[in-house]
Every structure is written in structure tokens, then in C-alpha cells.
Write a structure and sequence with these properties.
Layout lengths: L1 H5 L5 E3 L1 E2 L12 E5 L6 E6 L3 H18 L4 H17 L1 H12 L3 H21 L6 E4 L5 E9 L2 E5 L7 H12 L3 E5 L5 H17 L7 E4 L3 H10 L5 E5 L2 H13 L3 E5 L4 E5 L5 H13 L9 E7 H16 L19 H16 L3 E4 L18 E4 L15 E7 L3 H9 L3 E2 L1 E5 L3 H7 L9 E4 L11 E2 L2 E2 L6 E2 L8 E9 L15
Parallel strand pairs: 1-4, 7-8, 7-10, 8-9, 10-11, 12-13, 12-18, 13-16, 15-16, 18-19
Antiparallel strand pairs: 2-9, 3-4, 5-6, 6-23, 14-15, 17-21, 20-22
Helix pairs in contact: 3-5, 3-7, 4-5, 4-7, 5-6, 10-11
The chain binds 2-aminohexanedioic acid.
The site of 2-aminohexanedioic acid has 12 residues, from helix 6.
Length: 510
């Protein structure tokens, strides 16, 4: 476990940090950190108390007063240094992600790369927080629009991307002049502690005050609820299930705070009669089993034209037979464990429900047992043949279960099936016909936030805005103009003349 030491992780950890300081958590509840890879407990963490939380928020308020006055390109310079530091620690950080969450090492390293990429992106973006000017209807007047920081951004993240999703939010938020308080999933607490320790080096080197990047690991009912109700926090960026996102959004809305929601997906790939299967098969398999089916962008539904259905099925079964499941740190394995035993129970229950509702399991469906799988978290990636309208198919099960759905006729039928679920995150089409692909990305096409052509549903690049529609929550994070969601917009009207004309020609004489 050299990577734990390389990341300065000790056996006893604190779950509270205001930047570089780790205040004592006192009576905080203890959390055991264990790995789904081998079931070992590799550390203990003391969670934040309510007092810890309040102190952290006060410190962040002070941090904001400092940070908002730092010129944006100077803020970008700090982020540049963070990106360089992360390059130095990429391997141990990626290894920790893999060990703590169970995703293959390649994907763990890819996740750290995603944070490095967003850092690089933010360095440039820090010089491009553009406003605009427009003409006034009044003589010697000018209208302009500018963007200011909001204040404290709370970032609530899930276990499946324990560093990247924080990176999108914290880095974009920071160049915009905000400070952040990160509440990670307690299932991936060590990844958060390690990240905080690494960025702390940069904060210390630059002599920055506390309260710019804070971390709070606490119970959902204690710390999580406090964040949602806290008027001192103008923006909450929430990643998680639709059910918990709905509850969180209600609480924040009650105080008229802002949210950025990145909730569940039920992502489909359409395979038309014109599919290039050489491209499609690896994209489907990576999309369905990558991160053991626990990405919000995981491919869950395949909508396959009847003319190629049997061939697709044959190739997928063959591909699934060749998948190696086991220790994700060994690079010869394709698939690691699920996050915990509860996730295995959900998987097993879903497999049962599929058959109860009339579906057929084509491949897999079982939990794996034996010496290599002693943590009890490993399952077989699963293929199921189903009708598109089964209730279970319309739900997101966070596990490697891929539904094969047959369609007849034109691509419009497949698009309708793609769009009939309540979630709207990612979608894809495989086709060499421009008519079909253009229709898919047109206004009559996919209703999702991400619509891909001849690539799979997962593995989005940071340069685009990331997020989805309908039950996915409508939020946008990461690239493009997503930064605007982290700022308050101000319209300014300037009179540089000697008269005071009123808008709309209203006359008022005194
Ligand atoms: C998530 O699962 O919450 O597009 C994020 C992807 C990754 C991010 C997934 N870049 O699959």
C-alpha cells in the first residue's frame, strides 16, 4: 500500500479541512475506510461534527472576501500549479481511486487526467470570463453585462467519480472567484482526503489564506442537510441519484438558493441497420462495463435494428465471455468489483426483477464467489433481452446490466424508444447514414444533454458542457460556458451625459 503513504494518508484521518489545516473533529463519528477490491480496512476517519461544519463555513466566508479580490488570471495561476502538482501525483492518486472504488487502474488514472485537463482548461478560461456591452436607448448612456462570483459553492459528489466531478466544480468555481466546500461520498472519503492534501501543498506554497478550498466529510443527515438549508451557501452542485437529487433540490429551492444537478442517466445507444459493428461493439462493451456499470453515463439500453439484432447479440455474448473480472489494479482485468455489498444486493434483485417482468438473461446475472472475490463485491457483467417498455428497463440500476431491445422500421422508432425514459443524460447512435445521424442530433432527435455519433455514451471530454435533461436535473458542469452557472450576472447602465433621460421616454419633472 505504498500509494497511501505517497499521498500522505495515515491510518487515522480527519474529515475536515479548511485548505491546509485539519481541525480536530472531536466527537465526530468514526468511519472505517475499506476497499471493495479485497475487503480490507485501510484506515479510519473521524467525521465532521456540526460545530466543525459551522467553523468551516465561517472560514470560507472570510476566504471568499480575499479570493474574490484576486484578479481572475492570478486565480488561474494557482489552478495551473494545482494541475502541475496533480501530474506529479497522478499514479498514486489513480491507484487510490482504483483501490477505493474498484474501477480499473486505467480508469483511475484517466480520472486524475480528467482533473488535470480541467485545470489546464481553467487556466485559459480564467482570462475569458467575458461580459458584453450593448447599446442604450438613451443618449450618452451605455449598457453592459458582467459576471461576479457568487460566494461559497457546496460540491456534493458521489463515489463513482471521487475526484473528477469535484475537479469540474471546484476549478471552474475557483477561477470565477468562488470558494468551495466539498462534501464527498463517505464511500470514497480517502480519495477526497488525498486530493485535499495534494492541493494543500500548492495553497501553502503560495501563502493563501484558509477557506478557499474546504473539505467536509460528514453524515448526510447532519452535514448534508445543513448545507442544503444554509443561506450562507448560494450554490449547491449536487451529483447523485434522481431520488436524492429531487430531495436536495427541494430543500435548496425553499431558501431560493441555486442548484446544479447532475443526477441519474438511463443511456441508450441506437444501432441502425447501417451500423459499423467494428466501432460499435467495443464502444458498447466499454460503455456498459466501464466503472462496473457505475457511471452516470453508463450504457444501459441498446436499441438494435432487427436486421442486425442476432449478429449484435452473438458478438456481444462473445465479447462478454472474454471479459476478465478481478482485482482492478491488475491491468489484465477489464472489470473490478461494485462499490459495496449493498450494490451487489441491488444487482441481484434487479436480475430477478428482469425475469419476473418477462425479460431473459442472455449472459451473466450472478455474483462471483471464490478466493479472488472474497470481498463479496464482484458480479458478472450481464446482458438481458427485454421489451423496451418493461418497468425495470426505465429505472437506473447502478450495475453492469445491459438491456438489448429490438426495433423494427425507421430510425424514428428507435429515437422514440431512446427518449421514452424519464432520464436524459447521454445517448448515442451508430450509423454510417448521414440522414439517420443528423436526425438523431436534430430537434426531433435525442432529448438528452449528450448526443454522440459513432462513439459510446460514456467518457465525455471536459471541453463540452456536461449534464442532462428531464430527471437528470438540467445542470451543466465542466466546459463550454458552464462557468456562467457559478457566477451572478449583473446588468449595468452608465450615464456619461449631462441630462437624466428616463427609459421608455417617461417624463418626470421636478
Ligand atoms: C459521472 O458518472 O458522474 O463522461 C461522471 C464520463 C465521465 C464522467 C462521468 N467523463 O463518463
Amino acid at each position: 500500500m505504498n500509494f497511501l503513504r505517497a499521498l500522505y494518508l495515515e491510518d487515522e484521518m480527519s474529515g475536515v479541512c479548511s485548505g491546509t489545516q485539519w481541525p480536530s473533529t472531536g466527537k465526530g463519528k468514526k468511519l472505517q475506510l475499506s476497499s471493495p477490491v479485497d475487503g480490507h480496512v485501510f484506515g479510519n476517519l473521524s467525521m465532521a461534527t456540526s460545530d466543525n461544519y459551522d467553523e468551516l463555513v465561517e472560514c470560507a466566508r472570510e476566504g471568499f472576501v480575499f479570493w474574490r479580490a484576486v484578479p481572475a488570471p492570478e486565480r488561474g495561476e494557482i489552478i495551473r500549479q494545482i494541475g502541475l502538482k496533480l501530474r506529479e501525483f497522478k499514479h498514486p492518486l489513480g491507484t487510490l481511486i482504483s483501490y477505493e472504488t474498484g474501477k480499473p487502474l486505467q480508469e483511475g488514472l484517466g480520472e486524475v487526467q480528467e482533473v488535470i485537463d480541467i485545470c489546464d482548461y481553467c487556466v485559459g478560461q480564467s482570462r475569458m470570463l467575458y461580459g458584453m456591452t450593448t447599446v442604450s436607448e438613451r443618449r450618452s448612456h451605455r449598457l453592459l453585462e458582467q459576471y461576479h462570483p457568487l460566494g461559497i459553492v457546496a460540491i456534493i459528489t458521489a463515489f463513482n467519480f471521487p475526484m473528477a466531478v469535484w475537479g469540474w466544480n471546484a476549478m471552474i468555481g475557483a477561477i470565477c472567484g468562488n470558494v468551495s466546500i466539498w462534501k464527498p461520498s463517505s464511500k470514497a472519503a480517502a480519495s477526497a482526503v488525498a486530493m485535499q492534501k495534494i492541493i494543500g501543498k500548492v495553497l501553502a506554497l503560495n501563502g493563501l489564506p484558509e477557506g478557499i478550498f474546504s473539505l467536509v466529510i460528514g453524515e448526510r443527515d447532519r452535514v448534508g442537510k445543513k448545507i442544503l438549508k444554509d443561506r450562507r451557501i448560494p450554490l449547491v452542485s449536487f451529483t447523485g441519484s434522481v431520488a436524492s437529487g429531487r430531495k436536495a433540490a427541494k430543500k435548496v429551492a425553499k431558501r431560493l438558493g441555486r442548484t446544479i444537478l447532475e443526477l441519474g442517466g438511463n443511456n441508450g445507444i441506437i444501432l441502425t441497420a447501417n451500423t459499423d459493428l467494428k466501432l460499435a461493439v467495443p464502444a458498447i462493451v466499454f460503455g456498459a462495463v466501464g466503472t462496473t456499470g457505475q457511471r452516470c453515463t453508463t450504457t444501459r439500453r441498446l436499441i438494435i435494428h432487427e436486421s442486425i439484432y442476432d449478429e449484435v447479440k452473438r458478438r456481444l455474448v462473445a465479447a462478454y465471455q472474454s471479459l476478465k473480472i478481478g482485482d482492478p489494479l491488475q491491468e489484465t482485468n477489464h472489470v473490478g468489483p461494485l462499490i459495496d455489498r449493498d450494490a451487489v444486493a441491488t444487482f441481484t434483485q434487479t436480475v430477478q426483477t428482469i425475469t419476473d417482468q418477462g425479460g431473459t438473461i442472455l449472459f451473466g446475472g450472478n455474483q462471483l464467489t471464490g478466493e479472488d472475490y472474497s470481498s463479496g463485491c464482484y458480479v458478472e457483467p450481464t446482458l438481458a433481452e427485454v421489451d423496451h417498455d418493461l418497468e425495470i428497463v426505465h429505472q437506473e440500476t447502478f450495475a453492469p446490466i445491459l438491456y438489448l431491445i429490438r426495433y423494427e422500421g425507421e430510425v424514428e422508432t428507435a429515437i422514440a424508444i431512446n427518449n421514452e425514459v424519464s432520464q436524459g443524460l447521454s445517448s448515442a447512435i451508430f450509423s454510417t447514414s448521414q440522414r439517420e445521424t443528423e436526425l438523431f442530433i436534430s430537434a426531433q432527435g435525442s432529448d438528452c444533454g449528450l448526443a454522440n455519433v459513432n462513439i459510446g455514451t460514456s467518457g465525455a471530454e471536459i471541453g463540452g458542457a456536461f449534464g442532462g435533461e428531464k430527471d437528470t436535473g438540467g445542470g451543466r458542469e465542466s466546459g463550454s460556458d458552464a462557468w456562467k452557472g457559478y457566477m451572478r450576472r449583473q446588468t449595468v447602465t452608465i450615464n456619461y451625459g449631462t441630462d437624466l433621460p428616463l427609459a421608455q421616454g417617461v417624463r418626470f419633472e421636478i
